[in-house]
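request received
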Amino acid sequence: MTGTGTYKRRKGDVMMKKRVLAEVTINKEIAPGIFDLWMEPTQGLEEINPGQFIGVYLRNENLLLPRPLSICEVNADRSALRLVYRRAGEGTHELSRRKPKDGLGYVPILGPLGNGFPLEKGEGKRALIIGGGIGIPPLVELSKRLKADRQIVLGYQNGQTAGFLQKDLEQFGDVHVATEDGSIGVCGNVMDLIRKENLQADIIYACGPMPMLKAVKEFAGERGIPAYISLEEHMACGVGVCLGCVVKTREVHPHTNVHNARICTDGPVFEAGEVEI
Ligand SMILES: Cc1cc2nc3c(=O)[nH]c(=O)nc-3n(C[C@H](O)[C@H](O)[C@H](O)COP(=O)(O)OP(=O)(O)OC[C@H]3O[C@@H](n4cnc5c(N)ncnc54)[C@H](O)[C@@H]3O)c2cc1C
Ligand code: FES
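response:
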């Protein structure tokens, strides 16, 4: 996906990827129900674009499908990956129990998957990087790699989880925080904060829950600002086969000839105007 209305596979973004084992080296709770995990794949990974994700396979035989988790960060030689995840259901519960170096710490993973954020579009510009809740993790690698004037806006539901990844992001730009219950920062959501503080931007990058992405799309549309949004919606196969993740699009998909795109392979990042959300 190029963000220009046509869907193109990026170099290196192949459908058939090989599963590799990764050893969990850190897996700790950084806020209630939020875990910070570093893993070292046993084989080198190809180049990673911020906003790409991996599929994590679990031991429980009832959980056949990989769980998609965004790559939060990658170290310089791509020998270690960071994931930050919320313990949501059975799969992430199991993942949260993996202890480093206990012999059960190896996790099969598939990836990197999906397209990622277009870094080149933001180069030299005023970029507004907006994250809501568990949509914040991929913004760490994005903020690290984006060569732009970076204003980072983070939205959390309440004081309990507020602040996870805030310090990490403060290394890369001015961070503004909003909480729904007003316990930290501006009381309200990320859009309330952006309006209140009159933050200006030439380009927007965002990841978070769908209502937030809809509001970002509307705001960007009103002001004519290009916005790239990552749709972290429910997935099944994660590799473009099952059509379990389609989103309606403005343009016709060149392969299927319908107004649909698969979030797992054509996305998860789309130019906001291209998708009907
Ligand atoms: C591209 C992509 C990137 C993602 N990145 C992250 C990440 O970095 N960190 C993180 O914590 N989560 C992320 N998610 C969501 C994560 O994949 C789900 O929370 C996870 O698959 C749940 O698996 P489970 O077995 O624990 O829960 P399940 O038992 O499968 O589900 C538990 C509950 O979570 C809900 N749920 C499952 N998947 C999603 C979803 N995609 N969006 C909203 N609710 C969901 C289910 O409806 C159910 O209510 C991402 C999703 C996608 C598609
Ligand atoms: S999850 Fe199967 S096609 Fe996207």
